[in-house]
Amino acid sequence: MLSYILRRLATGLVTLFGISVISFFIIQLVPGDPAQIQTSQIADAAVSERVYQQLRELYGLDKPIPVQYANWVGKLVVGDFGSSFHDGRRVSAKIGEALWPTLSVALLSFMLTLIISTPIGIYSALRQGGGFDRSVSTGLYMLYSVPNYVAGMLLILYLGVKWDLLPFRGMRSDGYDEMTTLGQMWDLAQHYVLITFCFTFGNLAYYSRFIRQNLLEVVRQDYIRTARAKGLGERSVVLKHAFTNSLIPLISLIGLTLPFVLGGSVILEYMFNWPGLGRLYFESVLQRDYPTIMALNFITALLVLGITFIADLTYGLVDPRISYEK
Amino acid sequence: MATEATTNTTTGGAPAARSYWHITWRRFRGHRLGMVGLCVVAVLFLVAFLSPILANEQPILCRFDGGIYYPAVVDLVHQVPGTSLIIQKQRPYRLATFDFKREFDPERGDWALWTPVRYGPREIAAEPLAGPSSRHWLGTDQSGRDVLSRMVHGTVVSMKVGFLSMGIAVILGLVFGCIAGYAGGIADLVISRFIEVVQCFPAFFLILAVLAWFPPSIENVMIVIGLTRWVGIARFARGEILRIRETDYALAARSLGVRPAQLVLRHLLPNALAPVLVSVTFGIAVSILIEAGLSWLGFGVQPPDASWGTILRSGYENLFTAGHMIPPACVAIFLAVLSFNLVGDTLRDVIDPRLQAERA
């Protein structure tokens, strides 16, 4: 077990190193550095050139790329992501601000997905081929094929503009500060509805199909027949014997999708004017804000690797047959 | 029939290889939803190819000032790359300043067989942001261009991006997947690690970064999508090759002295193609989605060219005054994604013999 964990950590470190090197070089190769973007407004050519050089020196862009990379890693080791090239604020502060909007929507949508899709999946697996199974799976399949930003546009158009039912710009209405605490909560909740729905509905279809499929495979196993034969009630057979055994693929699916949910969606957050990570990312790319981009890349990669790792470890907890010794 | 088909696919081998796709097609035809999806794909493809004679500011056939002309047909021929070197539009029609509609004069004996939509995708035809009417079925956009015509020509962009970007992805994926799967050892280690690295990136970052480097255009969008989508295919191909490499017929071919390159190309790859095809079909849906999303963000197709994403964007920018552009673009994107997903799902059911056995 320990040797497995150590081996995984070692390969994970190598991958992280690869990711950081590649993204560092991609960023540097993109023409138009931040100093250039920030001095493009200065009319006087001589002044512009002087400020440009000073900025490059300030940001450390005048050094060779490997040196810049070494500096970045050196700071990273002590947990410092540096300061934004765009507004000079700490990158960690910028990310910290954007984290909660994205994280809250992601967790909310994730909980909703599991709460809704688990019963649907179980029920349609039990009544396989029945009316409920077929109508629900067709409906969910159609939903699954609706891209989330397409749904977002339609919801904004109808619920937001035409019928004027729900807000769709940002997290708060104007005059949020004057509201009572209850009013503020109500306002916030309203702003969450549309964007959370957009994040949720696609996964809903995917997860319930997935749960249904796995359960169907488990139900055919001999031990389920044994459980039935020894006279257990249907409820106990399904929930205790079948469903728990169909959990392993579900865990790996969660492991695969969670990091991308946490990363937010550039288009959706941009569309809903949501101050989250996706939006921060998009703006940082436009501003060539190297430290912020690097930090976001690094954190996403860390999440992907970390969550896959945890998911792999959980297999062993859920299924004692899986052994890590080889 | 099902059992016979199953034995054929599981034993594989050279003699069955020709009939394999035939059997697959026979089974595919049995799935109603899959066929519906395939039909929608075919219609989208036709609309894309025929777009010059479906929506054009110049007629299919006309008599103008005593001569007979067919400008839209020439546009149609130009859909095939390279033909513009052989055939060109006749004199007045190829001039940018020539406005056929204004010069058109029935009293002189002029007549014209118009395309179903009489407006070109870039033609400024009416006042901006007009709602749907009998002349402009889907209304006009912020510059007064016909939305229906732009939708028709947006189909070209989506189909091109979908198929060509996946073409790039397939080539890269198969090459790297085969090398990793067959050669094993160091090559496999390096390629697998590289695949893992690429997969850890937010795909959107790669795309945005590369597009910030290259000027945004549909060609660059295609290349970039292809460059980010190949890893999935490579993983699939690697897995399949690893599996097939150990089969008896691969061993037989090897003991006959077939060289590695030939073994992979002739014996292993054709048998690994089916699962790859499934992932390509889903990949096309994803590429169409990414293209529309990038165009929506302003990184894809540039104005005045039309794409479903840019139409959606103009709708978003004029939400309160002209929402009429949003539903058509949404429906188009949804239909394209749904039909490719349906085809992909059906293909997977048809190709996987395990599922087939369960059904039977």
Description of the molecule:
The complex is a heterodimer of chains A (326) and B (360). Chain A is 75% helix and 0% strand. Chain A is built from 14 helices and no strands. Chain A has helices spanning 2-29, 34-39, 45-59, 65-77, 91-126, 131-144, 148-162, 181-219, 222-229, 234-243, 247-262, 266-271, 277-287, 290-318. In chain B, a hairpin with a 2-residue loop joins β1 and β2. Chain B has helices spanning 2-11, 14-29, 32-54, 71-77, 100-103, 147-183, 185-200, 203-213, 218-245, 248-255, 260-297, 308-317, 326-351, 353-359; strands at residues 61-64, 67-69, 111-113. The longest helix of chain B has 38 residues, at 260-297. In chain B, α7 packs across α9 (218-245).
E-strand count of chain A: 0
Sheet with the most strands of chain A?
none
- Multimerization state: heterodimer
Total number of beta strands of chain B: 3
Structural class of chain B: mainly alpha
Radius of gyration of chain B equals: 25 Å
Total helical elements of chain B: 14
The radius of gyration of chain A is 25 Å
| Major pleated sheet of chain B | 3 strands, antiparallel
List the secondary-structure elements of chain A in sequence, H or E.
Answer: HHHHHHHHHHHHHH
What is the 3D shape of chain B? elongated
Order of helices and strands of chain B: HHHEEHHEHHHHHHHHH
Write down the overall mean pLDDT of chain A.
Answer: 81
- C-alpha termini separation of chain B: 10 Å
What would you call the shape of chain A? Answer: globular
Strands side by side in the biggest sheet of chain B = 2-1-3
Unreliable segments of chain A (pLDDT under 50, ≥5 consecutive)? none
